[in-house]
Every structure is written in C-alpha cells, then in structure tokens.
Amino acid sequence: MDTINTIAAIATPLGTGGIGVVRISGEDALKVADRIIKSPAHPEISSMKGYTCAFGRAYDMEGAIDEVVVTVFRAPKSYTGEDVVEISCHGGVYILNRILRACCDSGARLAEAGEFTKRAFLQGKLDLTQAEAVIDLICAQGRQAAKAALTAKDGALYRKINRVCKLLVEYAGHLAAWIDYPEEDIVEINPRELERQLGKCGDELENLLASYDTGKLIREGIEVAIVGRPNVGKSTLMNLLTGYDRSIVADLAGTTRDVVSDTVSLGDVVLRLSDTAGIRFSNDPVEQAGVNLAMAQIERAQLILALFDGGDPLTKDDWKVIERCRRRQVIAVVNKSDLPQVLDMGEIQRSFEHVITISAKSLDGVQQLKEKIIQLFHLGSFDSSAAMVANERQRLGVTQALDEVRQAQHALAQGISYDAVSVCIENAVDHLLELTGKRATQEVVDQVFSRFCVGK
Ligand SMILES: Nc1nc2c(c(=O)[nH]1)N(C=O)[C@@H](CNc1ccc(C(=O)N[C@@H](CCC(=O)O)C(=O)O)cc1)CN2
Ligand SMILES: Nc1nc2c(ncn2[C@@H]2O[C@H](COP(=O)(O)OP(=O)(O)OP(=O)(O)O)[C@@H](O)[C@H]2O)c(=O)[nH]1
Ligand SMILES: [Mg+2]
C-alpha cells in the first residue's frame, strides 16, 4: 500500500507548447505547492481560496525553474473532489519534468494512468460511464463523436441505466416480498402486468444497444480503402480528400507502392483513408509487394472506393478489382468525368450497387461521393444527444442485463416459479450496477482506468 496519497503528473502533452500544466491532487497538494512556489502576492499558496490563481515562481533545490501561474481548487470543489493545485508553466518538456520532480521531492508521488479521474470516481463525482466518456472526449476527432462523449459525460447513459435499474430493483423487491410472505397482505403480483413492465425495460436496453455500431463508426471513423488499377486517379482522390499532397501523383502507372494512410473529417464523419498501389500483375517484385498490400487493405476496409477511369475501356486489371470487391461494402467511383467517356458503364452498374461519377481534377461529383458515404453508413440519422453505449464493456453489460430481463419475461410467460423470475431480475440489476460502477470489482474499475493516460 502506498503511503503517499498526494499525486502529481504533467496534465498537458509532453512537447513544446505555449504553456504546460503540472497537476497535484490530494490532502497535501497545497503543502507541496507551498514548498515549491513563491508568489509575491500570496506568500502561502495554502491560504489561497478555491478557484483563485496567483503569479509566482517555481523552485527546486537548484534554484528557480520557471515563472508560473498557480490555480487552487479546494476540496470538494475540484475535478478530483480533493484539494488540487495546478501549476501552469512554460510548455517545454524540460521545465515540465523539472517541476514534476520538484513536486515529488516535496511530498507528492507520480500519479498512475487515469488516477485523477479514478479519484473523481471514488469521490462520487462521476460514475464509470461518465469516466469512460472523459477518454472518449479526449479521443474525439469529429463534432458528432465529441458531442456524443459530452452527452455521456453529462450522465445520459448513467441516468438511463439508473432508471431501468431502479424499476428492476422495485420489481425484485416486490417479488421477494411475495415469495417470502405469500400469506401476508401484499398487493398481488399480476404476472401479465409484470411481464409487460419487464418488456418495457428490455426495450429500453435494446434501444441503447441499437446505436452501438453507428456510434463506433462515429468515434473511430470508417476504414476506407481507395483501390483500382494503376493510373485511374487514386492518389489524386486521396490528396483531394486530405486537402494536401499526401500521395505522389504522376502520369506514370505504378506510382504508388506503399499504403499511404491519413485521417480526414468529411463534415461529421471521420474517414481513415488508405491510398494503395494500382492493382495489376507485375514482374517487379517491389510493385507486386505493393499490390499485395493493396489486396490486404481491401480485406480490412469497412468501405472500398473502387476507382475506374471513365476515359478508358475496362481492362483485365479492372476486372480483377471488380472480382476482389464482390460481396463487400463498395462504392464504384468512375473518375475523370472531364474526359470523353468510353468506359462501359453498363458493366459497372451491373457489378456495383453504388456508382458515383466524379472528376478528381475538376472536383465534379465529390460532394455526391461524400453524401453517399454518410448515407451508406446511416450516419445522417445518428443522434449524438441520446444516451448510447460507447464501448465493449458497456455493450457487454447491457447485453447481459437485457438477456436476464428477457429470461425473466420468458419465465413469467411460461408460468415458471417467481423464484426463477426474481433471480433473473437480480442478475440484470447486478450487470447494470457493474456498468455504473456502483457495484463493480476492483478489477473492473482498474480495467476502465487503465485506458487513460497519465495526468488525466
Ligand atoms: N485547468 C483545468 N482545465 C480543465 C480541467 C481541469 O482539471 N483543470 N478539466 C479536467 O481535467 C476539465 C474540466 N473539468 C472540471 C470538472 C469539474 C471541476 C470542478 O471544480 N468541479 C466542482 C465544482 C462544480 C461546480 O461549480 O458546479 C465540483 O464538482 O464540485 C473542474 C474542472 C477540462 N478543463
Ligand atoms: N483528366 C483527368 N486526369 C486525372 C483525374 N484524376 C487524376 N488524373 C490524372 O491521372 C494520372 C494518374 O493519377 P494518380 O492519382 O497518380 O493515379 P493512381 O491511381 O494513384 O496511380 P498509381 O499510383 O500508379 O496506381 C495523373 O496524371 C493525374 O493528374 C481526373 O479526374 N481527370
Ligand atoms: Mg497512386
């Protein structure tokens, strides 16, 4: 057991920046600050009020480290619920590390990953789903993902789970009373009515699960492979979508060799794009290796943009691409619409459900391509202000709770003993309480916070 209960960490990214923050939390946070900060206006940081700041200098044994601004938060009104001191210094790796070391030499210890938020959880500031939303906020790459994470941080999922949980506890209590004191004057259980109520709880849990796949796409982005035979304009499209010269474009067939990847936001949607080598048979082992990578990318992708050259007839290599894309989520993109069109569109229409004609040169059709992607993944109907299940842990917990609720319903319908019904409902409650962390094992809690970075 660690005896030092005051933690410190660098809260900002370790790099060069305008300012950087070292954060201290715990009962000795103010004492630690007293030892390393000298502020002309506040000789004792520990006598500052909560939510106030002061200008000063940070010192260690060797002397002054930097000029800083110190912000004081007093328990319980802080992120962690404990006394917190934030030291804002100049944003350099050396200075940040030296101030952190000074904190540790003055009564703090290094924080573990996620320990600040874990303390907020232990102090009851957040439930586990809200803590998880903090990481999702940090990792959000687009508007929808950030909004959904903030909704969860505000407790939308927590409240929903809590509501269902309360109802189930009520039913379980009623059943238990009925089972234990059948001869007493307890309102009789109407199995049909209870079955109906359980059905409603089950439906709520089912609705939560329904948005999981779309939410995952919004959070993590869609893995998109841009493929096609050489010279159809894959790299040109890649550059157009990323907005800069990410890939080399040349009139030479076989220009792209490696997989070139980048992440872009198209409106609300994050695409994890991969530009690939043109698919054709080649005697050049290096080019062939690139083609193999392209093939592998097709297998991995959630969406394939299969490019064709509208200004050329279909070739054997085009057919290879068509074969590879069968039974996959594909948009056929017929490029170079600015050139006289000779491509057999009939064949393309027969081979692909979704076909978009564009010119990567003149940008014609690119907007339609984007809209098609949003439409294909049902991202347009995504409601980021609704409660939703945001990760595997939550999905599993809700699924297990739902399973128990459905079993309870089934048991009622079959006229199986109230004992069995009651056990199922109690199991469902257990799963829900583990989700919010009200009744979670140390392992579950540690697992959640192990996903955090140090300083959060
Ligand atoms: N400087 C700074 N910026 C930050 C944070 C921080 O800790 N420090 N945050 C985190 O890393 C986030 C903000 N989160 C916070 C959450 C709660 C409280 C807080 O003081 N809560 C009190 C008072 C609430 C109230 O007045 O209603 C409380 O919960 O009792 C502070 C920051 C993002 N920006
Ligand atoms: N006219 C016209 N030319 C285009 C268009 N898109 C790309 N090109 C040209 O087509 C040639 C090949 O483009 P790239 O983007 O390098 O083609 P690629 O598919 O990446 O080729 P590889 O990497 O060799 O497989 C270049 O000269 C581009 O300028 C278009 O929409 N219209
Ligand atoms: Mg290329």
TrEMBL record:
<dbReference type="GO" id="GO:0002098">
    <property type="term" value="P:tRNA wobble uridine modification"/>
</dbReference>
<feature type="binding site">
    <location>
        <begin position="231"/>
        <end position="236"/>
    </location>
    <ligand>
        <name>GTP</name>
    </ligand>
</feature>
<comment type="function">
    <text>Exhibits a very high intrinsic GTPase hydrolysis rate. Involved in the addition of a carboxymethylaminomethyl (cmnm) group at the wobble position (U34) of certain tRNAs, forming tRNA-cmnm(5)s(2)U34.</text>
</comment>
<dbReference type="GO" id="GO:0042802">
    <property type="term" value="F:identical protein binding"/>
</dbReference>
<dbReference type="GO" id="GO:0005829">
    <property type="term" value="C:cytosol"/>
</dbReference>
<dbReference type="Pfam" id="PF10396">
    <property type="entry name" value="TrmE_N"/>
</dbReference>
<dbReference type="Pfam" id="PF12631">
    <property type="entry name" value="MnmE_helical"/>
</dbReference>
<feature type="binding site">
    <location>
        <position position="235"/>
    </location>
    <ligand>
        <name>Mg(2+)</name>
    </ligand>
</feature>
<feature type="binding site">
    <location>
        <position position="456"/>
    </location>
    <ligand>
        <name>(6S)-5-formyl-5,6,7,8-tetrahydrofolate</name>
    </ligand>
</feature>
<keyword id="KW-0479">Metal-binding</keyword>
<feature type="domain" description="TrmE-type G">
    <location>
        <begin position="221"/>
        <end position="378"/>
    </location>
</feature>
<feature type="binding site">
    <location>
        <position position="23"/>
    </location>
    <ligand>
        <name>(6S)-5-formyl-5,6,7,8-tetrahydrofolate</name>
    </ligand>
</feature>
<keyword id="KW-0378">Hydrolase</keyword>
<dbReference type="InterPro" id="IPR004520">
    <property type="entry name" value="GTPase_MnmE"/>
</dbReference>
<dbReference type="InterPro" id="IPR025867">
    <property type="entry name" value="MnmE_helical"/>
</dbReference>
<dbReference type="InterPro" id="IPR031168">
    <property type="entry name" value="G_TrmE"/>
</dbReference>
<dbReference type="InterPro" id="IPR027417">
    <property type="entry name" value="P-loop_NTPase"/>
</dbReference>
<protein>
    <recommendedName>
        <fullName>tRNA modification GTPase MnmE</fullName>
        <ecNumber>3.6.-.-</ecNumber>
    </recommendedName>
</protein>
<comment type="similarity">
    <text>Belongs to the TRAFAC class TrmE-Era-EngA-EngB-Septin-like GTPase superfamily. TrmE GTPase family.</text>
</comment>
<comment type="subunit">
    <text>Homodimer. Heterotetramer of two MnmE and two MnmG subunits.</text>
</comment>
<dbReference type="InterPro" id="IPR018948">
    <property type="entry name" value="GTP-bd_TrmE_N"/>
</dbReference>
<keyword id="KW-0630">Potassium</keyword>
<keyword id="KW-0342">GTP-binding</keyword>
<dbReference type="GO" id="GO:0030488">
    <property type="term" value="P:tRNA methylation"/>
</dbReference>
<dbReference type="GO" id="GO:0046872">
    <property type="term" value="F:metal ion binding"/>
</dbReference>
<dbReference type="InterPro" id="IPR005225">
    <property type="entry name" value="Small_GTP-bd"/>
</dbReference>
<feature type="binding site">
    <location>
        <begin position="275"/>
        <end position="278"/>
    </location>
    <ligand>
        <name>GTP</name>
    </ligand>
</feature>
<dbReference type="InterPro" id="IPR006073">
    <property type="entry name" value="GTP-bd"/>
</dbReference>
<feature type="binding site">
    <location>
        <position position="125"/>
    </location>
    <ligand>
        <name>(6S)-5-formyl-5,6,7,8-tetrahydrofolate</name>
    </ligand>
</feature>
<dbReference type="GO" id="GO:0003924">
    <property type="term" value="F:GTPase activity"/>
</dbReference>
<feature type="binding site">
    <location>
        <begin position="250"/>
        <end position="256"/>
    </location>
    <ligand>
        <name>GTP</name>
    </ligand>
</feature>
<keyword id="KW-0547">Nucleotide-binding</keyword>
<dbReference type="InterPro" id="IPR027368">
    <property type="entry name" value="MnmE_dom2"/>
</dbReference>
<feature type="binding site">
    <location>
        <position position="86"/>
    </location>
    <ligand>
        <name>(6S)-5-formyl-5,6,7,8-tetrahydrofolate</name>
    </ligand>
</feature>
<keyword id="KW-0963">Cytoplasm</keyword>
<keyword id="KW-0819">tRNA processing</keyword>
<dbReference type="GO" id="GO:0005525">
    <property type="term" value="F:GTP binding"/>
</dbReference>
<keyword id="KW-0460">Magnesium</keyword>
<feature type="binding site">
    <location>
        <position position="256"/>
    </location>
    <ligand>
        <name>Mg(2+)</name>
    </ligand>
</feature>
<dbReference type="Pfam" id="PF01926">
    <property type="entry name" value="MMR_HSR1"/>
</dbReference>
<dbReference type="InterPro" id="IPR027266">
    <property type="entry name" value="TrmE/GcvT-like"/>
</dbReference>
